[in-house]
Structure formats: C-alpha cells, structure tokens
Amino acid sequence: MEYILQPRFSQKRLKQVWLASGDQCSNDAISVFNRLSSGLAVKYPQVIFEKDMRESDISRANLNARRSGEKQTISQIYASDKVVVLLTFAFSNERPPPFPTARSRFALAAYEIVRSNFEARKQECSGTGNKRMDIALQYMTRRDFEAKASETSESIRARQDQLVDQL
User: Fold this and answer.
1) Any bridge partners for residue 89, and if so which?
2) Does the CA dihedral 124-127-131-135 come out positive or negative?
3) I need a labelling partner for 37 at 20 to 30 A (CA). Which of 64, 80, 89, 134 fits?
4) What is the DSSP string of the chain?
C-alpha cells in the first residue's frame, strides 16, 4: 500500500492538495467509503455531488475495469464556502496473464512465474486480491473548482453542439 501527499502549484501558488492511498483491497470499499464520506460531510456540509456506494456499484466498476483494462471511478464532491473536496475511488481488476503462444522453455517458465505471482496476489484480500482500489482526496478552492466546472460545462456543450451539427 502506498500513500501520497502531493501539493500542486500553478504560477508559484498552491492550487490543489492531493492525498492518495493506492493498491488497497476493494473488498473494504464500502466501509472505507462510509467512514470517509461521513467525516467529509461534517467538515464540508455543502454536498455538490453525492451518491451512496453500493455493492452493485463496486461489482459494476470491477467488471468494467476487467473488460476495459482501465480504472473505473466513483466520486463524491463536498464543499464549504471556501474549499471543495473530491473523494474518488478508482477500481482496477487485474487479469490473469495470457498463456504464451510460443512454446519454448523460456516462455513457459516465464509464464509460470507470472502466473504464480498473479495467483499469490489474488489470494490476498480474502481471495479477491486481483480487485484493487486507489482512493484520492483532492482539495482545492471553491473558486478554482467553479472555474474548472464552468470550463468543463462549456466544453461539453461545445462537443454536443458539434455532434448535433454532424447529424
């Protein structure tokens, strides 16, 4: 498990602070989510975006991560008058290694090592070690968040207009 504290600067000013913890067992997601979200809701009572995390959400995220090979995220956004906090869970689902197409001794030996490592990792987390999650808390000013949200909305509207014009 790794922990990261990452301040982000722009024009010599602190713009964001990221707190992250990676490579955690995703079978603990709901209890971790409940503890974090309840604490954040007390300190940052203005909920901008909130959705309870259910077991079905985690299953869907793990399934989509396995299919796509990319992390799938579930987020909530909390705020006070001056600060916004994004709580993000990113789920990944490691696939077993593919069997080698070359039947050389080296390829088979390498496959056995990789497969053994995968099986050992899978046994972690009560047998669900191939399903992992990263958790991030992203702190920023309310003003910066609103500016970024406005920029994103404009970009989405422009893209939608472009798609409508193509019809």
Assistant:
1) 74, 135
2) negative
3) 64
4) -EEEEEEEEETTEEEEEEEEEEEEEGGGHHHHHHHHHHHHHHHSBEEEE-----HHHHHHHHHHHHHHSS-EEEEEEEE-SSEEEEEEEEEEEPPPPPPPSS--HHHHHHHHHHHHHHHHHHHHHHHTTTEEEEEEEEEEEHHHHHHHHHHHHHHHHHHHHHHHHH-
Q: Structure tokens of 52?
A: 């309870």
CB 91 within 8 A of CB 133: yes
Residues whose CB falls within 8 Å of the CB of residue 43, separated by 6 or more in sequence, listed in order:
78, 80
Per the CB < 8 A criterion, the answer to whether 53 and 29 are in contact is: yes
Q: pTM of the full predicted structure?
A: 0.80
92, 65 Cβ separation under 8 angstroms? yes
| pLDDT band at residue 90 using 50, 70 and 90 as cut-offs | very high
